[in-house]
């Protein structure tokens, strides 16, 4: 799909409206409905604008452009001319149709990559930044199988579950879309520069924020509303009780999207948000096929075998094990190997083979470390040769 390039005059009007301080997307949509193109809005009187969208919106529209507006416009024009970069305005036929069902679609979208992916059937896969190794594996497997079925996987490019969802989405024809909370010319977190480059080539990166906008906490709930708006359903893999993923789920529910949650151990802190959503009406999901069936999405291709090795598994296991270790329960008198193993263990029963893959420990070192954790009361040995993190209330 190719976007017709707007003239610089048209782009300047759209950019001014998108930058107008205090002008909310819902108010802008009212003004566009009443007066047509952005240029016409600037020709209206304060009274005419206020009668349609209120006095605050009228003041925002009529506020003079900032002194550096011309430089901003030049930067946007230069960015748009770079290969793979596109700007889509609210009146553009290429604007994502799912976002038009929102009450407040952004007036201007900055897109890097495959614009067609914003017009496909899509599911969001979201969750904790401090994901467990099991959560990362689940997110990647679900995303991979959804993508193999021809469904686009949407997430927010954060650490943990989001990153795993994007990596899984890249492994199938459905692809992946990253909705970010910074300008489209920035990558946050910096650890995801390589992943963002892959998505820009084989998926799409979307932002409503002006170029150069840094990561700010206030931006991410607004980013979450775009994730919710682009999809038919939201799958939460892991989430604490206070989690941005739950904000995404709430916003999606308000838009009439379906909410799915993956259950976990009652002892796992990152399962509590999922369990809370299930109590509130989210659908409990155990397999990717259940998500596809609930949304009426037929598989477009044969599913990749469960347990097929994801790309770059070793690097990701080390990164996510380190994140899990940072948020794990207090451990005393445990060696560095014990810390590493406990981080890799997660909160679900796990076999010796899986632990060996996750930690890359030698057999003797792994066995000794398991014994150390068992004696320290941090690990429980289950029937069938499985291991599980011990509960501490």
UniProtKB/TrEMBL annotation:
Top-level taxon: Bacteria
Residue ranges annotated for the DprA winged helix domain, each copy included: 335-385
Sequence ranges assigned to domain Smf/DprA SLOG in this UniProt record: 87-295
UniProt-listed Pfam families: DNA_processg_A, WHD_DprA
An individual GO BP term: DNA-mediated transformation
InterPro entries (alphabetical): DprA, DprA_WH, DrpA_SLOG, WH-like_DNA-bd_sf
Family to which this protein belongs: Belongs to the DprA/Smf family.
Protein name in UniProt: DNA-protecting protein DprA
Source organism: Paraburkholderia lacunae
Gene giving rise to this polypeptide: dprA
């Amino acid at each position: 799909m190719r976007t017709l390039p707007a003239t610089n005059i048209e782009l300047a009007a759209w950019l001014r409206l998108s930058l107008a301080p205090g002008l909310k997307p819902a108010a802008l949509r009212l003004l566009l409905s009443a007066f047509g193109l952005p240029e016409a809005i600037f020709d209206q009187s304060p009274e005419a604008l206020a009668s349609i969208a209120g006095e605050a919106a009228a003041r925002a529209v009529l506020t003079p452009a900032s002194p550096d507006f011309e430089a901003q416009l030049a930067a946007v024009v230069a960015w748009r001319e770079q290969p793979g970069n596109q700007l889509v305005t609210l009146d553009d036929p290429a604007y994502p149709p799912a976002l038009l069902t929102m009450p407040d679609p952004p007036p201007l979208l900055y897109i890097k990559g495959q614009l067609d992916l914003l017009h496909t059937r899509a599911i969001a896969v979201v969750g904790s930044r401090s994901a467990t190794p099991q959560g990362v594996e689940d997110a990647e497997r679900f995303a991979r199988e959804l993508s193999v079925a021809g469904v686009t996987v949407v997430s927010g490019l954060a650490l943990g579950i989001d990153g795993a969802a994007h990596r899984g989405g890249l492994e199938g024809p459905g692809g992946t879309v990253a909705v970010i909370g910074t300008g489209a010319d920035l990558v946050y977190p910096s650890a995801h520069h390589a992943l963002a480059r892959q998505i820009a080539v084989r998926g799409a990166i979307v932002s409503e924020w002006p170029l150069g906008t840094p990561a700010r906490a206030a931006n991410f709930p607004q980013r979450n509303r775009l994730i919710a708006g682009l999809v038919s359903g939201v799958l939460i893999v892991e989430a604490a009780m206070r989690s941005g993923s739950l904000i995404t789920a709430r916003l999606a529910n308000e838009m009439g999207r379906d909410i799915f949650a993956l259950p976990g151990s009652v002892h796992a802190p990152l399962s509590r948000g999922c369990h809370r959503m299930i109590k509130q009406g989210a659908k409990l999901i155990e397999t990717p096929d259940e998500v596809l069936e609930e949304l009426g999405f037929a598989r477009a291709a044969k599913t990749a075998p469960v347990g097929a090795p994801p790309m770059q598994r070793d690097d990701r296991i080390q990164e996510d094990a380190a994140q899990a270790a940072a948020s794990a329960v207090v451990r005393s008198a445990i060696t560095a190997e014990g810390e590493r193993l406990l981080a890799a263990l997660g909160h679900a029963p796990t076999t010796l083979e899986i632990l060996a893959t996750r930690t890359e420990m030698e057999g003797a070192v792994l066995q000794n470390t398991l014994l150390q954790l068992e004696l320290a009361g941090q690990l429980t040995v289950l029937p069938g040769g499985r291991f599980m993190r011990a509960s501490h209330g």
